[in-house]
Structure to design on (242 residues):
């Protein structure tokens, strides 16, 4: 048996070529050697299509691909013999692909961009933000310090959304807290508009928080449903144990 921990299909192809050269030197048939790969210890739920494409390229060279469970992975068991079959991984959160995953990730990235841009304005020129929103009268100088503090948190949360978008379900706490933030934002804006303290001229995109709530909530709900669908009954057992 020969095992590799190659991290890419290109690296695997190179190692296979080296193995064949050694076999030729030793006068041994490389086809008689059982080849396995243990380099695909990645979260299949992040990007199923990409994972399958990589696995299919691995399967050209090896007889067995070892798949290991990762933290928060709702499907803790995975044994994938070649030829690679989608049916082996089409459970639970693996269905989070196509439109659902693209919309969820795009929404998180868009929200992250808005957070970073808003935070940058707060940090670099808080007075400019007040001008853009036509906020009158101008606040005292110490207000700028509070805006700068908020700006740092905007930037930090924006970066967090970018990172979380790489694995939305595993980082779902970012989705949950952003939904909560958008709910608070909408309630606050609606309250100020109702009291007459602010106007639509200052907050023309009052419905924007509702858009983020709808998109993030939709993706979050679909993700949760997929994970519940993948969870086996408590009495279920797996051959060979876990």
């Amino acid at each position: 048996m020969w095992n590799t921990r190659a991290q890419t299909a290109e690296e695997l192809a190179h190692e296979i070529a080296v193995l064949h050269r050694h076999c030729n030197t030793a006068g041994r048939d490389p086809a008689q050697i059982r080849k396995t790969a243990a380099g695909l210890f990645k979260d299949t739920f992040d990007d199923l299509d990409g994972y399958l494409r990589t696995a299919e390229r691995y399967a050209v060279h090896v007889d067995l691909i070892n798949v290991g469970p990762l933290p928060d992975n709702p499907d803790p068991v995975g044994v994938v013999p070649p030829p690679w079959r989608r049916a082996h991984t089409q459970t639970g959160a693996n269905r989070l692909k196509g439109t659902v995953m693209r919309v969820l990730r795009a929404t998180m990235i868009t929200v992250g961009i808005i957070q970073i841009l808003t935070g940058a304005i707060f940090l670099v020129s808080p007075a400019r933000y007040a001008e853009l929103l036509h906020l009158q009268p101008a606040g005292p100088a110490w207000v700028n310090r509070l805006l700068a503090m908020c700006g740092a948190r905007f930037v930090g949360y924006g970066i967090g959304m970018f990172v979380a978008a790489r694995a939305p379900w595993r980082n779902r706490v970012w989705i949950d807290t952003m939904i909560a933030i958008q709910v608070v934002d909408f309630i606050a804006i609606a309250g100020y508009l109702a009291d007459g303290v602010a106007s639509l001229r200052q907050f023309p995109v009052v419905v924007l928080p509702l858009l983020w709530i709808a998109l993030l909530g939709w993706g979050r709900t679909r993700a949760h449903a997929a994970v519940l669908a993948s969870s086996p009954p408590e009495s279920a057992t797996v051959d060979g144990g876990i």
The two ends are 23 Å apart (CA to CA). Strands lie at 2-4, 35-37, 64-66, 79-80. DSSP finds seven helices and four strands in the chain. The helical segments are 9-26, 48-59, 98-124, 126-132, 142-164, 172-195, 208-230.
